[in-house]
Amino acid sequence: MHTGHRFVTSVFLAAALLAPPGIMAAYGPHGQDGREEHHEREEQRRYYDREHKDYHHWDDSEDHAYRNYLAEQHREYREFSRNTRARQQAYWNWRHEHPDHD
């Protein structure tokens, strides 16, 4: 009787371990017709503002604000991550003075 109980327990354990990958394979990045969908995911970037001790998530809204900052400062566009720490901090200082208004 114990052998049968162990077998049933093993089957349930195996099913529990294999179910999540099977579900992901069945319902993963496929459309309704079964073909893979390719979505360009926006890279999630996060920057720490040392002076204000907070994090800023870089998204389309932040990029827009950054471009406004550059125009106000009469500077050409340069990818934010390629700026020096001092220039990044100058932007965060400006950003805290110019928050988004929803």
Written overview of the protein:
With 102 residues, the chain is mainly alpha-helical. The protein has helices spanning 2-27, 60-72, 85-97; strands at 45-49, 54-58. It has a two-stranded antiparallel ribbon with strand order 1-2. The longest helix is centred in the first third of the chain and has 26 residues, at 2-27. It is rod-shaped.
Q: Which key features would you list for this structure?
A:
rod-shaped; 3 helices; two-stranded antiparallel sheet; 10% strand; mainly alpha; 102 residues
According to DSSP, the number of beta strands is 2
Summarize the main sheet.
Answer: 2 strands, antiparallel
Main sheet strand line-up: 1-2
Gyration radius over CA: 25 Å
* Separation, N- and C-terminal Cα atoms: 67 Å
Strand content is 5-15%
Shape descriptor:
rod-shaped
Helix and strand pattern: HEEHH
- Going by helix content, strand content and strand pairing, the class is mainly alpha
Low-confidence stretches: none
Mean pLDDT: 79
Number of helices: 3
Portion in helices? 40-55%
